[in-house]
Amino acid sequence: MLNCKCLNRRFRMEHWSNQKEWIMGFVYRSYLLRSKSIQLGESNRWTLQVTVSPHKDSSGEPREQTFSSENTFSSKEMADMEGIIFARKIIDGEIPGLSIDVL
Fold it and tell me: How far apart are CA 12 and CA 55, in angstroms?
């Protein structure tokens, strides 16, 4: 497992690899967000999936919620960057129909 950390004033970002799957994770407004880019079949198009969970959950119960985007991107790097933006917008309540209220 590869793990690299980069600190920023707004959130902490981590990249890690499990087998051949790269995932980007970061902490934003007390939530841990994990974003992964997914290649669509044999095409050169990518999409993303974001999982949100409380950063420090005192209940001991694993709680998380997964969101997907219908958008596709021309590169993995673009899908990675859009995953960050998508996750932050979900937390900030900027995407109608997507909410973290159950967390």
Answer: 11
Which amino acid appears at position 96 of this protein? Answer: P
User: Is residue 10 helix, strand or coil?
Assistant: coil
Q: Which of 33, 12, 11, 10 is nearest to 23 (CA)?
A: 33
Count the neighbouring beta carbons within 10 Å of the beta carbon of residue 95.
13
Work out the average pLDDT over 79-95: 90
CB atoms within 10 A of CB 16: 15
Residues 34, 41: Cα–Cα separation, whole Å: 22
User: In whole angstroms, what is the distance from residue 6 CA to residue 92 CA?
Assistant: 22
Please tell me the pTM assigned to this model.
0.69
Considering only residues 9 and 77, tell me which one the structure prediction assigns the higher pLDDT.
77
Query: Distance (Å, rounded) from C-alpha 88 to C-alpha 90?
Result: 5
Residue 35 pLDDT: 87
pLDDT: is 62 or 63 the higher one? Answer: 63
For 76, the 3-state DSSP assignment is: helix
